[in-house]
Amino acid sequence: MNVLVLAQRQPTEWSEVVELLVPATGETLYMVGVSTLLAAVFGIPLGVLLHLTAPGGLHPRPTVHRVLGAIVDLGRAMPFLVLLVLLLSVTRFLVGSTIGPTAAIVPLAVGAVPFVGRLVQNVLAEVHVAVVEAAVTTGAGTLKIVRSVLLRESVPALIGAIGVTAIALVGYSAMAGVVGGGGLGDVAVRIGYQRFDDRVLWATVIVLAVLTSLIQLGFSLASRRLDRRRHASA
After folding, report:
1. Of 41, 65, 173, 197, which has fewest CB within 10 angstroms of its CB?
2. CATH domain 17-229 topology
3. From CA 106, how far away is CA 87, in angstroms rounded?
4. Distances, alpha carbon 118 to alpha carbons 26, 48, 115, 217, in Å
């Protein structure tokens, strides 16, 4: 295809752009929502375990902490596209396919779990040591301290951490579109980039930016509201 043909190609009509972006936005929200939920379900306990076994934690276990920390750091350092390829057989085993939004959820969630784990560990470390010591002196067990002190005191910060993860997953989901993951990334690459359609490409970028801003706004509002309630009831 020569340059003249490319220059003469007409951009996609706006009505068609909307028809492309609406279902793609739904797919992106589906991927990000489910993978964020899974990352929170598995990442929060991982972060708690990292905190408890750390030096100075309630149950310091240096070896366990170092092994967990190394696994978490490896997971965070792994480029998402490499992780996506590495997990193809796992994805096919779990969902029966390696293409589509549901298949993309597997590497998205796996990649986000260590990210959430480290964020949760950092959040729990911010809980004032005097609060934890007070709970210990009352004879509270580890599970009760985790549930009633560490997690309860950290709820606003935890929501903020999950929001950061969701925004990161929006970017990861766009990368998943490169290999058939669907969503806005798929539209941007397959139609916007490969067909040289700047209208589709930029419209996709704008939708991704708006989506990211709305997610950030929602989690920030929820975090601030819970923080005010916590201080009001203290």
Report:
1. 41
2. MetI-like fold (1.10.3720)
3. 8
4. 29, 9, 6, 23
Give residues with Cβ within 8 angstroms of 167, minimum separation 6.
212, 215, 216
Going by C-alpha positions, the residue among 59, 226, 62 that lies closest to residue 143 is 59
The number of angstroms, rounded, from the C-alpha of 75 to the middle of its chain's C-alpha atoms is 13
Residue boundaries of the structural domains of the chain = 17-229
Distance between CA atoms of 111 and 186, rounded to whole angstroms?
19
139-178 pLDDT, tens digit per residue, is: 888 899 998 899 988 999 999 999 999 999 998 988 887 7
Q: Which residues of 114-127 are buried (b: 16+ CB within 10 A; e: fewer)?
A: bbbbbbbbebbbeb
Tokens 């911010």 locate to 126
Q: CB under 8 Å, gap of 24 or more: what pairs does 106-111 form?
A: 107/80, 107/83, 107/176, 108/31, 108/32, 108/35, 108/169, 108/172, 108/173, 108/176, 109/34, 109/35, 109/38, 109/39, 109/42, 110/75, 110/83, 111/75, 111/78, 111/80, 111/83, 111/172
CA 96 to chain centre: 23
Q: How far apart are CA 206 and CA 200, in angstroms?
A: 10
Classify residue 173 by burial, with Cβ atoms within 10 Å: 0-12, 13-18, 19+.
Answer: buried
Tokens coding 139: 């004879």
Q: What is the pLDDT of residue 9?
A: 62
